[in-house]
């Protein structure tokens, strides 16, 4: 996997580059918009992480130029600018994801991985399985420890998202964005309450508990070691 | 003193465009007036003089041709006849036996015909008047002697000089009236401009409360004053808002920041920090950032920065999503959460923001309604009501809940950043909706009314 990081703040840039390299990615960096656009147009990247406020050429302009040149490399926009309209502005210009600063590295990694997977032809999976948990997407049935678990539609979506990203730490914001499709920080423990409810339903069927809380980061669905 | 004040005046004229325009205008009027009067003078008086000259030339021409064809006797008769007939005409012939005509000498300086010249004579000798008279005439040298024919131009000259005097007087008058009215007008205009200048200078010095006085006249200056005052009102309000946001950010962030500082200090003294400690510090930071972002966003929404997308929003659909999201919270508190749609309500709005404020209201209702109670949302043709069985907001504090970071005393112990209701108010305002509170014996209602 090959990544381009366009970010003018040195600490952030190195933090991102180092993190991705540790996960086996090849990383190129640029500290201004013009160099970023030059690299992005010349090389073939799997994902581009693009800061919004950049010297020489603003991030959104870089993005617009890329898309105008029919370069469809997935772009994650990084920004200190939060707000409904800012986000929409970024996505309208052809951004694939929008992440607000400060962010955790784990979240950025997960988002990048999701984007690379989106790029490849996905096998039409109809059944998601981990350990003793099985989700049938066609009949919308969930079996845990050979017992059928009755889930509400939203709980089903929540579990499906966790299953599709098993072994990845998913932040609360990501869950809220992907499962509910709302883009704001709900501020309360509302996501925790929903996850707790889902976990309780699954656990009542018996077997090992699969949804684990990662403190300070979010949730992960994995087989306990 | 005098030179100083003159310098002052010069300086003022240079500095004030109004005074300059007045002077320029006066000068233009003066030039126009002057040229008009000169033209009048030239056309009327000049024409009169030309006619007189012409008369003299014609007489001289006929006399000179007469001299060629007649005897001396006949010529002298003709000259005498001419002197008799025209009392205003002066004629003298220097013949062989003395001077003939109404002058007893031949003026020497008179130019030969057809040139004309003016000269003085002592009127006593010919005309009734004893004064020196100015006459204008011409001379011929005929066979029978030199002859001078002239006409009296004294009255005409007097008239001309009177006319010229009147002309100068009129111009001086124009100049004076122009200068005085110009000065008075510009003083009046300048006085009002100066007021505006003083006020804007005051504002420039940081006195934002200064306002330009508006008179009853409703003229351009009042319009300008009105615009300036409106602008100042806006600026003052923005500055106040910024000041209040800044101070509340400082105030509200200081507490968690110092808590974080204390924690870090503790780790330092302990000599090490384990994962638990760092997570605690991170959570603290997350709270700070959350508050910070919420405040920034509120300000942005309030001052209309950014362009929000407004679309048709079905409030019953949004509310049912809100209820679905909030349901587990109510379950934890063993409350029943219900939605009743009496009539569909569709408004022009921003889906995300409407969802957020409805979630805020429902979340608050759940938080402040006692365990095991009932929280209801009712939608009718113009409003969304969130009804809980909590204590509600005391009437005295109902206005204050919209202020940033305001938290009721009773809610200080419950988690929250005190911005929820501010957001509700700001978003409601953006949608032209009103927020009202109704308190009954058993229930408390927050009502969002769309117009």
Automatic annotation (TrEMBL), chain A:
Taxonomic superkingdom: Bacteria
InterPro entries: CheY-like_superfamily, OmpR/PhoB-type_DNA-bd, Sig_transdc_resp-reg_receiver, WalR-like, WH-like_DNA-bd_sf
Entries under CDD domains matching the protein: REC_OmpR_CusR-like, trans_reg_C
SUPFAM superfamilies reported in the protein's UniProt record: CheY-like
Phosphoprotein is among the record's keywords: yes
Domain Response regulatory: 2-116
DNA-binding region positions on the chain: 125-223
This protein's name: Transcriptional regulator
């Amino acid at each position: 996997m090959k990544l381009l990081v366009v970010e003018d703040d040195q600490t952030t840039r190195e933090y991102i580059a180092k993190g991705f390299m540790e996960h086996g990615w090849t990383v190129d960096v640029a500290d201004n918009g013009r160099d970023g656009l030059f690299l992005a147009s010349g090389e073939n990247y799997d994902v581009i992480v693009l800061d919004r406020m950049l010297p020489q050429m603003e991030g959104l302009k870089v993005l617009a130029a890329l898309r105008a040149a029919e370069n469809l490399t997935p772009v994650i926009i990084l920004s200190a600018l939060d707000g409904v309209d800012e986000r929409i502005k970024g996505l309208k210009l052809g951004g694939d994801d929008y992440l607000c600063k400060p962010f955790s590295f784990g979240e950025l990694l997960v988002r990048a991985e999701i984007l690379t997977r989106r790029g490849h032809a996905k096998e039409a999976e109809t059944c998601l399985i981990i350990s003793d948990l099985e989700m049938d997407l066609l009949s919308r049935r969930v079996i845990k420890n050979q017992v059928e678990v009755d889930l509400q539609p939203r709980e089903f979506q929540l579990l499906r998202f966790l299953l599709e990203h098993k072994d990845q730490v998913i932040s609360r914001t990501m869950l809220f964005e992907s499962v509910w499709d709302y883009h704001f920080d709900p501020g309360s423990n509302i996501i925790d309450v929903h996850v707790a409810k889902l976990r309780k339903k699954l656990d009542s069927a018996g077997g090992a508990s699969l949804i684990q809380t990662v403190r300070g980061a979010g949730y992960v669905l994995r087989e306990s070691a | 003193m005098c030179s100083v004040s003159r310098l002052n005046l010069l300086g003022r004229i240079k500095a004030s465009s109004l005074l300059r325009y007045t002077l320029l205008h006066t000068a233009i009027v003066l030039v126009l007036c002057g040229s008009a009067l000169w033209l009048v003078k030239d056309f009327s008086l000049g024409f009169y003089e030309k006619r007189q000259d012409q008369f003299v030339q014609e007489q001289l021409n006929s006399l000179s041709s007469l001299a060629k064809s007649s005897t001396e006797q006949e010529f002298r008769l003709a000259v005498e006849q001419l002197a008799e007939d025209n009392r205003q005409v002066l004629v003298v012939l220097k013949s062989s036996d003395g001077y003939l005509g109404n002058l007893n000498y031949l003026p020497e300086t008179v130019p030969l015909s057809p040139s004309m010249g003016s000269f003085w004579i002592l009127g006593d000798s010919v005309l009734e008047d004893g004064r020196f008279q100015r006459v204008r005439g011409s001379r011929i040298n005929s066979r029978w002697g030199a002859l001078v024919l002239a006409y009296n131009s004294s009255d005409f000259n007097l008239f001309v000089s009177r006319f010229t005097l009147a002309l100068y007087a009129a111009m001086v008058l124009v100049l004076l009236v122009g200068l005085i009215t110009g000065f008075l007008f510009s003083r009046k205009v300048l006085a009002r401009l100066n007021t505006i200048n003083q006020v804007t200078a005051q504002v420039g010095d940081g006195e934002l409360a200064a306002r330009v006085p508006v008179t009853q006249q409703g003229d351009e200056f009042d319009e300008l004053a009105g615009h300036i005052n409106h602008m100042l009102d806006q600026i003052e309000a923005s500055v106040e808002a910024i000041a209040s946001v800044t101070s509340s950010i400082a105030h509200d962030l200081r507490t968690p920041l110092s808590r974080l500082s204390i924690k870090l200090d503790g780790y330092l003294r302990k000599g090490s920090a384990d994962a638990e400690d760092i997570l605690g510090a991170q959570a603290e930071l997350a709270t700070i950032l959350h508050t910070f972002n919420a405040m920034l966003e509120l300000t942005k929404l309030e001052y209309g920065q950014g362009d929000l997308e407004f679309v048709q929003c079905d409030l019953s659909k949004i509310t049912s999503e809100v209820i679905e999201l909030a349901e587990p919270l109510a379950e934890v508190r063993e409350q029943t959460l219900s939605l009743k749609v009496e009539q569909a309500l569709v408004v022009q709005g921003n889906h995300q923001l409407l969802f957020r404020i409805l979630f805020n209201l429902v979340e608050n209702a759940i938080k402040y309604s006692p365990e095991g109670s009932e929280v209801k949302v009712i939608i009718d043709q113009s409003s969304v009501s969130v009804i809980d069985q909590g204590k509600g907001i005391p009437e005295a504090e109902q206005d204050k809940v919209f202020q940033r970071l305001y938290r009721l005393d009773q809610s200080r112990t419950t988690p929250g950043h005190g911005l929820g209701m501010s957001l509700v108010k700001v978003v409601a305002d953006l949608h032209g909706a009103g927020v009202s509170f109704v308190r009954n014996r058993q229930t408390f209602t927050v009502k969002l009314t769309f117009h």
